[in-house]
C-alpha cells in the first residue's frame, strides 16, 4: 500500500520544481534588465527627446505616447466591458446562445495581438478613415483587452453571494438598484484588478500599435487624438533592430522603463485588491 505522505511529498516537489522553472527565468530576465538598464535612468533620459538618430537623448515622447494610448484604451474598454459583464452575469438567460457568446469571449482573449493589429488597421485606419492615430491605436488596444475585462468582471460579479441580491430585492429595491448599490461595490476588487492587468498587457504590446498608431520617430508630442505617437514597445523594437550602433545602455534603459510601467500597474492592482478585500464582510 502506498504511503500517502510519500505521494504528497513527491507531488509537492514537482509543484515546487514547476514553480522554479517559471520564476527563475523570469527573475533572471528582470535582473538583467535592471542591471543593464538602471545606469541609463536619469532625468535627461526620461524628459528629453531622442537625438542623433535615436542614438542619444531620451524617451519622453515614447513615454507620453504610451500614457495617451493606455488612457484612451481604458476610456473605451472599461465601460463597454463592464456593461457587457453585467448583462452576461445579471440579465442574460442560460441558453445555447449565451454559452456560445461566453465561450467566444474566452477564446478571443487568446487571439494573437497581431491579429487585432490587422483588424484595427482594416476597420479604424482604413474603413473609418481615422488614419494611423492615437484614436485608432486606443480603439484597437481596447478591443484587444475587452475579453479580459469582460471575463474578470463577470467572475467578480458572480462571486458576490446571491443572498445579497435576495435581501436587497426583498427590501423593495429594483434589480438595477441592487446591482448598482450591492453587487458592484462588492465586485470592485476583481473588476479593477482585471482592468489593470489588461492595461498592463496593452501597454506592452507592439503588434497592434505597429499597424495603427506608432511612429518611427516624432520629436514633438501629439496635439490631438488623430496624430501619430511614439510608444515605448515600438520604440524599443526600433532601437533594437532598425537603428544601428545604439548604445546597449539606451536599449536596456528603455526596456527598464517599460518593465517598470507594467510592474507599477500590476502593483497598483495588487494594492487595490488587498484594500478592498479587507473591507469584505464575507
UniProtKB/TrEMBL annotation:
Domain of life (superkingdom): Bacteria
Record's keyword annotation contains Ribonucleoprotein: no
Gene Ontology biological process terms from the UniProt entry: phosphate ion transmembrane transport
GO molecular function annotations of the record: phosphate transmembrane transporter activity
Domain ABC transmembrane type-1, chain residue ranges per copy: 63-269
Record's GO cellular component terms: plasma membrane
Subcellular location: Cell membrane
Xref: Gene3D superfamilies: MetI-like (1.10.3720.10)
Membrane topology: Multi-pass membrane protein
Keywords linked to the UniProt accession: Cell membrane, Membrane, Transmembrane, Transmembrane helix, Transport
Sequence similarity: Belongs to the binding-protein-dependent transport system permease family. CysTW subfamily.
Protein name: Phosphate transport system permease protein PstA
Organismal lineage: Bacteria, Pseudomonadati, Candidatus Omnitrophota, Candidatus Aquitaenariimonas
Amino acid at each position: 500500500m502506498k504511503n500517502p505522505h510519500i505521494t504528497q511529498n513527491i507531488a509537492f516537489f514537482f509543484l515546487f520544481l514547476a514553480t522554479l522553472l517559471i520564476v527563475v527565468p523570469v527573475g533572471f530576465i528582470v535582473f538583467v534588465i535592471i542591471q543593464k538598464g538602471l545606469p541609463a535612468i536619469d532625468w535627461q533620459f526620461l524628459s528629453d527627446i531622442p537625438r542623433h538618430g535615436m542614438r542619444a537623448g531620451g524617451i519622453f515622447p515614447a513615454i507620453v505616447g504610451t500614457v495617451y494610448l493606455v488612457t484612451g484604451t481604458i476610456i473605451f474598454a472599461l465601460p463597454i466591458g463592464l456593461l457587457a459583464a453585467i448583462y452576461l452575469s445579471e440579465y442574460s438567460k442560460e441558453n445555447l446562445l449565451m454559452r456560445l457568446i461566453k465561450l467566444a469571449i474566452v477564446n478571443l482573449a487568446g487571439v494573437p495581438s497581431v491579429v487585432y493589429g490587422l483588424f484595427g488597421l482594416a476597420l479604424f485606419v482604413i474603413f473609418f478613415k481615422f488614419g494611423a492615430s492615437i484614436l485608432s491605436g486606443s480603439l484597437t488596444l481596447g478591443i484587444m483587452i475587452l475579453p479580459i475585462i469582460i471575463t474578470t468582471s463577470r467572475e467578480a460579479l458572480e462571486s458576490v453571494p446571491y443572498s445579497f441580491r435576495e435581501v436587497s430585492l426583498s427590501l423593495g429595491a429594483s434589480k438595477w438598484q441592487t446591482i448598482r448599490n450591492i453587487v458592484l461595490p462588492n465586485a470592485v476588487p476583481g473588476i479593477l484588478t482585471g482592468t489593470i492587468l489588461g492595461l498592463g498587457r496593452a501597454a506592452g504590446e507592439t503588434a497592434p500599435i505597429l499597424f495603427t498608431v506608432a511612429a518611427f520617430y516624432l520629436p514633438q508630442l501629439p496635439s490631438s487624438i488623430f496624430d501619430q505617437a511614439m510608444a515605448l514597445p515600438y520604440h524599443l523594437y526600433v532601437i533594437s533592430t532598425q537603428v544601428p550602433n545604439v548604445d546597449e545602455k539606451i536599449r536596456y534603459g528603455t526596456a527598464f522603463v517599460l518593465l517598470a510601467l507594467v510592474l507599477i500597474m500590476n502593483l497598483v492592482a495588487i494594492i487595490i485588491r488587498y484594500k478592498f478585500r479587507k473591507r469584505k464582510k464575507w
